[in-house]
Amino acid sequence: CLSDQSKRELEADYGMPSSRVIVVGSRVDTAFFKPDKSVPQKAQICSAGAINRDYDALIEAARPLGVPLKIAADTAWHYSTGKADGKPALPLPDFVEMRSWKTYTKLRDLYAESAVVVVPLARPMLSGVTVALEAMAMGKAVILTHNRYVEDFLKDGDNGLFVPAGDVEGLRKKLAHLLAHPAEAERLGARA
Questions:
Q1: What's the angle, vertex CA 53, arms to CA 10 and CA 89, rounded to 5?
Q2: Sorting pLDDT into bands at 50, 70 and 90, what band is 85?
Q3: CA distances (Å), 10 to each of 126, 167, 170, in order?
C-alpha cells in the first residue's frame, strides 16, 4: 500500500496480517522532476490533477491575492465540463487558467515557474500524492490539504504546509505568507 494509514486500515479493518502488508510509498522520477533554476520563477500559484480536488476553495483563496493561478487539469471538472450536478458551470475568473498542459515536460515547467504548488483535496483520501511529490522533488513550496493518508511524507512547517479541508481563509493566509516571503517558500522547498 502507499501509506502507513492505509497499512493500519488494512490490518484493523480488513484483518490483513501485518507481515503481509508492506508500505511501498509513492514514487516520483527525481531525475526528471528536480529543481530547475533555468526556468524563471513567477509570482504565481499552480495546481494539477482533477480527482478529489477542491478547486472552488483554491480559487476563492487565491482571488484577492492578485497573482495568476494555473491549474493543469486533464480530467473533466465542473468549470470545464459545462455542468456541475445539473447546474451551469461557473465561468473561470480572469486570473485562473485551467487546461491540459499536454506533456510532463510542460507540467514540470509549470511547477518550476510557480512560487507555490497547492494540492487542495475535497475529502481525506490518498489522492494528490503524485502532484505533491513531483513538486516537492522540484524543491517547490507545497500546500496540501491535511489528511492522515499524507502525513508520511509532508511534515507541516518543515517541508511543506498543511491546511484543513475547505479552509479558504487558512489557505489564503498561507498562500499570502509564502508569496510575501519567498525565502520561506524556498526553505520549505529545499527541505522537501
A1: 140
A2: low
A3: 14, 30, 32
